[in-house]
Amino acid sequence: MRCPFCGNTDTQVKDSRPAEDHVAIRRRRYCPACAGRFTTYERVQLRDLVVVKKNGKREPFDRDKLERSIRIALQKRPVEVERIDQMISGIVRRLESMGDTDVASDKIGQIVMETLARIDTVAYVRFASVYKNFQAADDFEEFVAELRPNIPEEDDA
Ligand SMILES: [Zn+2]
Fold first, then answer.
1. Same structural domain for residues 58 and 89?
2. Which tens digits make up the pLDDT trace of 81-112?
3. Where, if anywhere, are coiled coils annotated (predicted)?
4. DSSP assignment string, 39-92
5. Which domain holds residue 28?
6. Distance 88 CA to ligand 1 centre (A)
7. What is the distance in A from the centroid of ligand 1 to the CA of 143?
8. 157 in a domain, yes or no?
9. CA distance linking residue 93 with residue 105, whole number of Å
10. 38 alpha carbon to ligand 1 midpoint, in Å?
11. Residue 27 lies in a domain
12. Are 86 and 143 part of one and the same domain?
């Protein structure tokens, strides 16, 4: 695994342990070249998902994009990081077990909304309100960009 700080490919695993209720393995890594420390996660990938947008464009499913949008919706909400990771893994697992490698972007949005609704109402409303506009944009990057300005910088007093 290449060091994200200096690019050295010869990094060492210092510690491995189960995470997210044994859904993932968390590895602490150390780079002897720059003394940088970073974490990687190993997860089961049941299938390579392809996201199909409304305009028919296809792109590989990107867990990081999904995670970004969910983290933005949950910004400053009292939800533990571990819980968020579990939630994202749960969503991915659902997508993977739907029986088809092609997943409509709409379907992903719906599943995220359903999941957020159970975890945090504020995050759900944030996500859902932007998601409605997003139906037209139909692009996760645009969606994430739109989601951002709707969230106040400071918590409500
Ligand atoms: Zn390094």
1. yes
2. 889 989 998 999 888 888 788 999 888 988 99
3. none
4. EEEEE---S--EEE-TTS-EEE--HHHHHHHHHHHTTTSS--HHHHHHHHHHHH
5. 12-43
6. 29
7. 33
8. no
9. 16
10. 9
11. yes
12. yes
**Contacts of 149 by beta carbon, 8 Å cutoff, 6+ apart:** none
CA of 37 to the centre of ligand 1 (A): 8
Query: Do 64 and 135 sit in the same domain of this protein?
Result: yes
Q: Indicate whether 58 and 73 sit together in one domain.
A: yes
pLDDT digits (tens, 9 = 90+) for 22-40: 778 999 999 999 999 999 9
29 and 94 fall within a common domain: no
Task: Write down the pLDDT at residue 151.
Answer: 54
> What is the 115 CA–ligand 1 centroid distance (Å)?
37
Ligand 1 mean position to 123 CA, how many Å?
36
DSSP class of residue 33? T
* Chain segment 119-139, per-residue pLDDT in tens: 998 898 888 877 776 655 455
41 alpha carbon – ligand 1 mean position (Å): 18
Domain annotation covers residue 156: no
60 belongs to a structural domain = yes
Give the sign of the dihedral formed by CA 104, CA 54, CA 73, CA 18: positive
pTM listed for this prediction = 0.62
Span from the CA of 10 to the centroid of ligand 1 (angstroms): 9
